[in-house]
Structure formats: C-alpha cells, structure tokens
Design a protein that fits this description.
This protein has helices spanning 38-49, 58-68, 105-113, 125-131, 136-139, and strands at 2-11, 18-24, 31-35, 72-82, 85-93, 98-103, 121-123. The chain starts with a strand and ends in a 68-residue tail after the last helix. With 207 residues, the chain is an alpha+beta fold. Helix 1 runs parallel beside helix 3 (105-113) and helix 2 (58-68) crosses helix 3 (105-113). A hairpin with a 6-residue loop joins strand 2 and strand 3. The protein has a seven-stranded mixed beta sheet. It has one domain (2-187): Bifunctional nuclease domain, CATH 3.10.690.
Length: 207
Amino acid sequence: MRTLEAVGVYLDLPDTTPVMVLREVDGPRRQLVIPIGFPEANWIAYALKGVELARPVTQQLLADVLAEYGLTVHQAVISGFRHGNFHAHLDLVGIGETRVVSCRPSDAVGLLLRLPGAGPLLAVDDVMDRYGQPSPALVGDPDHQADEDVVGDEGGPPVGHEGERDTGDGEQAQDPGHDEEGLKAEDGGQAGGKQLGEVGAGPEGSA
C-alpha cells in the first residue's frame, strides 16, 4: 500500500468540477485525482487551511462523535475502483476490537484532517498503478494549498459524480466497497486528462 497526503482541492476547468488531489508521500510521488462535490471540496479546503467554522460540518461532527466514544482511526484506505467509482474504508479501533467502515475517499480525507493523531491515508498498489498520474502532468508542483485554491461556496450545488450504491456487487477482500466519486466517462477512465485550474476563495456557507 502507498501512503498519500492531501495536496488540495481544485476546479477541473472548463468543466467546473471540483477535484481532490492526493499525492504519494514517498516513491514516484504520483497523484490521484478524484472528482467530488462542492460541499466536500469546501470542507477539505477549509480543513487544509485550518479555518474554524461557526458550526461543525458533517466530517467534524463525525470526528467529535468518534472522540466522544473513544474510537480512533487506525488508517483510511482507498481500496478499489469499480463501476466508475473509487471505494474506501476506515479501520476504526475501539476497546479491544477493530471495525471496518466503508466511506467515500472525500469523507475519509476530511475526517483525517480533523482528527489529530489519526492514522495515515493509504491507497492499495493497484489503484495507484492504474490511476495514479505523474505530478507535473496534473497541477505542476502544488506543494501546499494556496489561498486561491479554495473552491466555491459551502452552500453551492453539489456537482461531479458522487456515485450510487451498487447492490449485489461482488466485494473483494481488500475492498469493502462503498461507492465514491468517480471518473467521468469522457476521461476514458483516466484521471487528470485536463489541466487543472484554480478559483478564488468563496464565502463560508451558512449550512
């Protein structure tokens, strides 16, 4: 498995689809680009910048609930890609037991950014080998989340492919299988086919 870090959130111009960019910490430093919705994009961008919101967003609420019940995130894993969607899961450690909970990669990243001391973000080798792209081909060399990288308004309409749950899917052992943001059909199943643009920071949403 490969350890990843969150690089930032950008707009995939000219389609105005927010994308989350993750990059390998070591090795070839490939990037994984995952389309996400505007609310999730804003929450991740705010977390990367350390922006405190007046009320907790969903990911912060989940972090608070986990802390209240003494649960820790051992690791979050981007575990597969099926039917146009990325899949992920959280390994949660409680009192004497470990539970695996499926989630979207965007929620996993947003949660880890809000949980000090949480485990790493990982991707299975097959996902990075098939969908990872060289960093310069995607966004140049974004070593940090700059002010101009924040996407839109938290209250804006969700866009991008969030995926629908596929009932009856055969699950692989390493992929507990929760549907996630997918690659668009016109991208031919390959992320990062377009130069990623950047947009100005939007106001904090009221939701």
